[in-house]
Amino acid sequence: MTDNPFMTMKNIDKSFNGVPVLKNVSLKVEKGEIHALLGENGAGKSTLMNILGGVHLPDNGSVYIDGEQVKMLNPRISQEQGISFIHQELNVVADLKVYENMFLGSEIRNKVGFLKVEEMCRETHDVMATLGVDIDPKEYVRNLDTSYKQLIEIAKALLRKSRLIIMDEPTTSLAEHEVNRLFELMRSLKQSGVSIIYISHKLKEIKTVCDSYTVLRDGELVGTGSMERENPETITKLMVGKAISQERYVHENPFGPVIMEVKNLTSEGLFNDINFTLQQGEILGFTGLAGDGRTELFESLFGYRKKYSGEVRINGELVKIDHPRKALKAGIGFVPKNRKENAIIKDLSVIHNMSLSSMGNFESSGFLRDNLEKERFQYYKDALNIKVHNPQITIDKLSGGNQQKVVIAKWLEANTDILIFDNPTQGIDVGAKQEIYQEIVTLSEQGKAVIVLSSEAPEIIKICHSINVMYQGEITARFDGKSANEEEIMQYATGSKREAKKIG
Ligand SMILES: Nc1ncnc2c1ncn2[C@@H]1O[C@H](COP(=O)(O)OP(=O)(O)OP(=O)(O)O)[C@@H](O)[C@H]1O
Ligand SMILES: [Mg+2]
Which residues are in the ABC transporter domain (predicted)? Predict the structure, then answer.
């Protein structure tokens, strides 16, 4: 390392409402390096970056760019220093077109002030092409899939010709090939002298692209160094203060009767001829790559999508679920994949976000039983280790991972007989993942039927009794959780192998 880093943060302190969130934190980023910023949910990563990005002011401490102290009083000053910020909770505007989002606040105009639309579209197209993305710059963002929204945020940073790019969990909704593209691009940015601060809970990714790391725990700096010399276990230990078990969580518990039966479920272009049964006490996994149709399949079973054919039976009775309300009535709960869009109400308090799907539990003769609600919240706060000092604050004040824990608590509290989790550990740190796995296993031991969707095969293997692999809308293999291994699952997930006989 040289002695003239591109960016230095020194002795940063920050409190919110008297609660310290960062304590004397320092961070040094060299020119042309990819620096991982690591730590548990709520450790202070996004807050530290918000200070660098001029979103929050520090209570103490200073920031230096190229050796000169800079007061990051607002986001514009930070941008002028060549710093771009790809936020964890995506900030694209759904009602604007792609190119309008790209140039929001820095529109290209001609001399008399008219917008140069074609030029902005051309530039948008060119940057998108470097990311390997082919979308119409004039398309409305609301019509696009979440992964494109993330790509737009990334493209925006590229367009600005930044010197330092902050990426706060940039890959949460990207497909594998998009992640690989991003990594290629990060490497070439690095070659051209751009620095990157990379926040992620996926240790594999960090090991692949990062040169150095800094770990925060409870708002304090606990370690920093070069990536090469560390193995992932050491870093995990620094983050969570303990080693993480690689064992399977799920035990063989006796199953009850069949609770859900799905026959020949088909939705043109999304999934085809899906058959499975689910028993009480069973945890059934679905995995595959992006585009395998599993999310669409379960969005249909929960009534978010209506156009499908086939039979669904709950407790032996034929049901037609074409609205989430009907799904709930049939005893199905669903933890969806896109937290910000589908699962939280951001202006509502943390505690009410928890009770949203189960208001009935907290009512008696029309009155809300506050104490019971508080008691239940305390239970989940302990069980899932939710970091929040005051549950009355709005949920958007919580760190990303802690918001996800509240969403999970909401559905655990709704206490449905069948619970579907789509990508439940998105943005959750390695330590807290274990607590969520434990809750899922406990549900099954209580006789609930659980379905888990995840693209991470190791996660599915850890918590499922049996595993369905999907490829292009079809189930291509079924494994017993005990004997499943990651390589074999990948062969079916990528379509390089498929079972000869029909699954079902
Ligand atoms: N605007 C705010 N008001 C009050 N508290 C806040 C605010 N922003 C962040 N916090 C608190 O600061 C702490 C650190 O949050 P931060 O978002 O920095 O965590 P993080 O390390 O990014 O976690 P994650 O991995 O879950 O994203 C949390 O306890 C959070 O609730
Ligand atoms: Mg964060």
Answer: 7-243, 250-497
